[in-house]
Write the structure tokens for this entry.
Amino acid sequence: MSDKLIIFDTTLRDGEQSPGASMTRDEKVRIARQLERLKVDVIEAGFAASSNGDFDAVQLVAKTIKDSTVCSLARANDRDISRAAEALKGANSARIHTFIATSALHMEKKLRMTPDQVFEQAKQSVRFARNLVADIEFSPEDGYRSDPDFLCRVLEAVINEGATTINVPDTVGYGVPELYGNFIKSLRERIPNSDKAIWSVHCHNDLGMAVANSLAGVKIGGARQVECTINGLGERAGNCSLEEVVMAVKTRRDYFGLDLGIDTRHILAASRMVSQTTGFVVQPNKAVVGANAFAHASGIHQDGVLKARDTYEIMRAEDVGWSANKLVLGKLSGRNAFKQRLNELGVQLDSEAEINAAFARFKELADRKAEIFDEDILALVSDESVSQDKEQFAFVSLAQHSETGERPHARVVFTSGGHEIHSESDGNGPVDASLKAIEAHVQSGAEMVLYSVNAISGSTESQGEVTVRLQNSGRVVNGTGSDPDIVVASAKAYLSALNKLQSKADRVAAQG
Ligand code: KIV
Ligand code: ZN
């Protein structure tokens, strides 16, 4: 048995299935690059057969990524598998991940298939996929709630057909660590050819145990691949969180005794990138990547850490990408210093034009804010900040007036398809007035289902980071914006959400 734990990241596939977390093709490529920098072993880039947009994203990620294996999900049928293989053609190392549900409930109610039909389809699909790509992963969906005898029969057969990885999903997050770990162990013990495949765990977080269940699958069950997402992004309560599982295995190497290929110094940048791209804010007390993860507020703790760091710290903040000195740049910093800091933060901008655009925004921010922190830089280079020229809507300026006892009024200037628009409105507050001014012109009709403001670096001097979630005709998108002025940040976030609604509509139209 290998001593290496394979990290399979599914932020771009299972993570993206979270309502509102959908990403554009370019955003996916950007995140995939960061995952490659993090040295994840396998990147599940999408579900190629699900839409033309997903196909394109898998294809581009496959062409761009050199060091990680790139994987596409596919239902267990020839069409899905052929699309996945087609999208993965340009990859250095490609994997097809095919799945079919095996629990009685899913087979009867969802698939309307008998167990024998599912058995045959699973076998046939792996055989078909194996002729296209050598690296094949098979997942029995809702595997943890499946009848163990039936599961053994299916898994033995797909290994015989050439599946190289067997993944056992706890699709609905029903497992508890000891039981899930023993479930994997007993499958491996009962299936005669189990040693011909690598065993993998895939846990959802509905009961808050996805990380614990995954670790039990590794420790008790002998799994050597964990499927996870950055920030635990995913449907409902999300998936197993990459940063937590990785740091648990690294910090408790004494217990797990496993090696990892991950360069943990890029974890924080990956977390920020996923959060800013999707608008899913990371809670302050989130392990490893939350703003408070390494903050010691109590006097006793601060005193202890100053005397000997390991009194209260089990990991080093620098090891996951928090810099020891968070104040990095100021008004007088030059382009080279800015570029070097981007490198240190693991941010790679594609062209000189992108670096110039980001640097111009940095200078603009430095004029208004004396101290620029890493968090500010990461916010500054988020996709929508540097690629406004490609978007339908872009923020230009805003003026608003609010006074106690008077109804606030805002005037917003923005571009729509390159044309400058001036629009104004009243509102319940300055934010409401500004967003109403934009909506008065755009008339998207979208419903706002979430609005949240977060101080990027913790004080009133910091930038506000706003997330706006809009819903329209069954589509849900998140937009983010940051600025020291939270009214401006809100207008930017609203325009960013409108851009995403627009690009989603374009993608749907292109498929039609
Ligand atoms: O949760 C699940 O069952 C899945 C499979 C498609 C692997 O995501
Ligand atoms: Zn899943």
